[in-house]
Amino acid sequence: MPAVSASLSGRPEAVGSQSRLFALSGGKEVFMELCARRDVPVGETWDLSLIYADEKRMWEELEKTKAAVAKLRETYAGRLGTTENIVKCLDETEPIRQAMDRIWNYAGLALEADYTDNELREREEKVGDEITRMESDMAFVDSEILLAPKEELQSAVKSARGCRVYLEDLIARKAHMLSPETEKTLTALGRTLDAPYTIYNTMKLADIAFDPFTANGKEYPLGYSLFEDNYELEADTEVRRAAFRAFSSTLAKYKNTTAAAYNACVTTEKTLSELRGFGDVFSSLLFEQKVTREMYDRQIDLITERLAPHMRRYARLLGRKYGLDKTTFADLKIAVDPEYDPKVTIEESRRIVREALSILGDDYTDMVERAYRERWIDFARNIGKSTGGFCSSLYRRNSFILLNWNDRMADVFTVAHELGHAGQSMYGDKAQSYFDTDPSSYLIEAPSTMNELLLAHYLVNTKEDKRFRRWVLSSLVSNTYYHNFVTHLREAWYQREVYRIIDEGGSVNADSLSDIFRRNLELFWGDDVGIPDGAELTWMRQPHYYMGLYSYTYSAGLTVATQAMLRIEKEGKPAVDDWKKFLSAGGTMDPVDLVKLAGFDITTDAPLCATIDYIGSLIDEICRLTEELDGIKV
Ligand SMILES: [Zn+2]
Question: What is the Cα 538 distance to its own chain's centre?
Fold first, then answer.
């Protein structure tokens, strides 16, 4: 569930025209008619009038912003050789960028809530084009600043108030910048360079069509989100595995187009890294994150090696619990206790989230209250709405959170997670300038997963009941840790293999990608999990591959969150205070120094090893509770 700040990249898939959701739980079928967006209760939608009272105001601000960009160009183009002009120009850029964020969010978020609305789609495309044009007109700022004499740049860093880190980053990037004309051309080609991702999404959202499948003598409808949100979790093994086979066989029909788009994406990244003078594509992709190759490799290698034995035990437990001959890749998402799924209303979630996060202080609970009261959150389920969840924050204003509320306790975890992104923005924005507020993407998922852990910690202490305790702990393992430490980590391992091939001048195709992914799954799961035909196509399922080295950061963020949560559990207030220092520092330091504020040293493998041990201890306890509750021993 990505945090989205300045742009709405990383969009989750849209439901498209699918009008029926078909949920199965413990073999019981529940049909849910999805309604049109206009029929959704207003109280369950986000309030975009927090950005503009109406659309007219957005267009007015767009015109004003275009004029401001033209003026900026007129005033500073060709004149950015002095400290004074550099600082003044960046100061004047700040409100322009904030306005662009507001405009982009207003148009983009409305579409996220209903992709079937062609008017919203046209508006979003128009706004997107206008913003790309403005970006292109402003591209001179960075490239001209870098042409300024060294002394002027150094004195600009010293005298800049709100853009010190921005300037330092720019200077660090200098060795990799191309001529102003080339930079302008590349910016103007931005949408074209993004074409692989657009093609991937178009295949996934518009073209791919699933035929119904049959299980237990009955026909079931199939769709992308139906599979990922329902059938993959389905307790009936025949239905779950039949859905997996049907899903995979349809996916396979699109593998060559998808591989071609992906190959175009990674070869473009390779070409850009060469043009910009990076030694290899990894250095180029890690450069922006301020992360060393060692930190990146450690995350992938250590988790592969040390977490695997724990996860295999968990897989065996699932197999025993469901009476399977052998657990397969198609069974890994099922719940330990499928009959037990606590229901919760939106109003109850408000109290639960507020109380769970109250350990972070009154300012945090005030934010939670505001999020509900001022309608920052889009809970509704409707035709054409994006699936999954995300949080998009506007500088020193509110955040917007998209999710699809389903009355399950799992949805409360999503709310807590997304509010973690909102909390990061709240503290960072308060203490830092617009330019310096966003931390490296290495840490983006730390505040969000921290909130999931705090919620679990709160829940286990509310009831003595063993079944409830097992449910909470297994939610942590099967959602929070599985998602971040297994799913995304396998993606990261796969990506590393792909980039190695690309770096050596090779290319990839559907067959080579499938080979890599199969090896990947076999390496991690060993003999404990069967890898059925179709599992190797998992490389087709994630949009993250089009976002550079992003997948591995999920486990990096959660490592920091886990250690900080355990420290808060043990030490209380001093640890909470350090966590807030970490949040407030925004992007003013690199990840290593930021995490030091929270009390940890991520240049060593200690925090990651301790986190893997912690996951192991959760799985041990789930096994112990299952032995007590069901007499099943693993
Ligand atoms: Zn997230």
Answer: 18
Name the token pair of 609.
């090893």
Q: How many residues appear in the chain?
A: 634
CA of 446 to the centre of ligand 1 (A): 8
Residue type at position 10: G
Give the max Cα distance, the chain. Answer: 77
DSSP E strand stretches across 372-484: 377-378, 390-393, 399-402
Cα distance between residue 456 and residue 419, in whole Å: 15
Rounded to the nearest whole angstrom, what is the distance from the C-alpha of residue 448 to the centroid of ligand 1? 6
pLDDT at residue 33 in the model: 62
Token pair in block for residue 76: 């500073």
Contact 539, 517 (CB under 8 A): yes
* Strand pairing category for 28-33 and 390-393: unpaired
Q: How far is 539 from 555, CA to CA, in rounded Å? A: 18
At 54, give phi and psi (nearest 5°).
-155, 175
Encoding tokens for residue 101?
């964020």
What whole-number distance in Å separates Cα of residue 540 and Cα of residue 532?
Answer: 16
What is the chain's mean pLDDT, rounded? Answer: 91
User: How far does residue 93's CA lie from ligand 1's centre (Å)?
Assistant: 28
| DSSP H helices in 114-189 | 118-145, 150-159, 164-173, 180-188
Over residues 556-578, the pLDDT tens digits come to 999 999 999 999 999 999 999 99
Q: How far apart are CA 131 and CA 139, in angstroms?
A: 12
Nearest to 452 by CA among 334, 551, 558, 609: 558
Q: Hey, what's the torsion of the CAs at 579, 595, 480, 525, to 10 degrees?
A: -160
Q: What is the pLDDT of residue 342?
A: 86
**Ligand 1 mean position, distance from CA 421 (Å):** 7
Can you say how many angstroms the Cα of residue 161 is from the centroid of all Cα atoms in its chain? 31
The identity of residue 605, as a single letter, is D
Q: Would you state the pLDDT for residue 253?
A: 96
- Pairing state between β 399-402 and 377-378: parallel
Contact between residue 120 and residue 110 where contact means Cβ atoms under 8 Å apart: yes
Tokens standing for residue 631: 């007499």
Distance 416 CA to ligand 1 centre (A): 10
Distance CA 9, CA 43 (A): 27
Tokens of 431: 């203490």
Q: Which is nearest to 435 in space by CA: 103, 230, 156? A: 156
Q: Token digits for 210? A: 């699933």
CA distance 441 to 107: 25
Using the 8-state DSSP alphabet, how is residue 344 labeled?
-
572 vs 241: CA distance, rounded Å = 45
